[in-house]
Amino acid sequence: MNGFFDIPSDLQSSYLGLISTHMQEALVPVLVGLLLALPIGLLCVRVNWIYPPVLWITTVLYAIPSIAFFVVLIDYTGLSKTTVMIPLTLYSLVVLVPAVVDGVRSVPEETNAAAAAMGIGSLRRYLQVQLPIAVPAIMAGLRVATASSISLVSVGSLIGNQGALGNLLTTAMLYHRPLLAVNSVVTTAVLAVLVDAVLVLLRRVLTPWQPASGRRAKRRTSTIAGAARTPESVS
Amino acid sequence: MNVLNFIQSFFSDGSHWHGYDGIPQRVWEHLQYTAGALAIAAAVGLPVGLVTGHTGRGGNALAFVSAGARALPTFGLLVLMFVWLGLGIVPVMIPLVVLAVPPILITTYEAIRTLDPSPVDAARGMGMPERKVLFQVEVPAALPLILSGLRSAAIQIVSTATIAAYVSLGGVGRYILDGLYQRNYEKVVGGAALTAILALLVLVLFWAIARVAVSPGVRRRRTA
Known about the structure:
The complex is a heterodimer of chains A (235) and B (224). With 235 residues, chain A is mostly helical. Helices cover 69% and strands 0% of the residues of chain A. Chain B has helices at residues 2-12, 23-55, 59-71, 74-85, 90-113, 117-125, 130-160, 173-181, 185-213, 216-223. Chain B is elongated. The chains are: A mainly alpha (235), B mainly alpha (224). At the A-B interface, helix 2, helix 3, helix 6, helix 7 and helix 8 of A face helix 3, helix 4, helix 5, helix 7 and helix 8 of B.
């Protein structure tokens, strides 16, 4: 009897090892994506005409399927985690840049004027005034980007052993062991839900001025934060 | 530069243009998967989104369902369905539909929900029946957003349908995977380029649909 959590030896990893690899391959790109999206977002807010072309470029990059992206990158970065993480970073930008831009644009003009009147310079204003107010919008984007990133790591298994939990899928096909595929799908989904819950908690901590019930008070506005910004995630 | 050379030699190779593994055949297969999955997802997502958006009930349930669907890994689901159900179109369709329903559902719900309430109330005040309020007032006004939900679902399907090749089905993904195993990067890049072109065509198609279908009054307000 094989234990559900026994991983075939060809994966050269334990169950927990696969999970930690998966998390690393999924979360590092989102983090890097966020770090890139903050200056890009600032630029798009400042220089208005840049925003449409930026959106077009990211959308086009996004249309390239991840597996093709991986294979093309093999030439440059080899069979490594980097090969999986670069496309995921670019995909997360597609969600994060509009989230940052929309969030910063939603900052009321009076708030900006007040900050300016207090003599707060533009960079400090961005970091200390606009970004905190934009946290709900950015968080909504982060949630979408993280969920799709966690789901996409699995595709890395197609270019060799780079898919973390996705590698279980390859093995499941190879040895015809459906349980391994179940394990992979369930574990990935549970991870996605857990990370999402952490992000929701983080938003609560970062926006203490928003009472938990206060969000429901707004009637006709969005009940599902940021959902109208459609998550265009790929596989 | 490298990549462009690959693309050029892939598309100029005559042998890629006919027969069972020819570009027209593969693109046709790809379009069939895409259209099928999009049709099913729209048939599920649009009515539910319209009704929940109109009544304003079930928003939380909707958010919950779509978050759950988003957590499911598409590729994992594909392999799982393949291992369970075997070869066929059904194991490919299920993950694609699961992928496409949440954006359609949520955007439709949000589109109806966040409309300016005054025209809707006015329509009610004039004695319009609820059905007419939905289809003659709310849907036309919400159409741009509803279409954008369908568009993003379609793009996701086009680019994800490439993994159908992994479970022995055709489509443009065939080139990517075959190229990968044959260490033929020209093929991989060609397949990727085809997918990107298809995705761009989807963008253009939806842009054209929006131009024709969206009432000029609504369009003017949106762009303002």
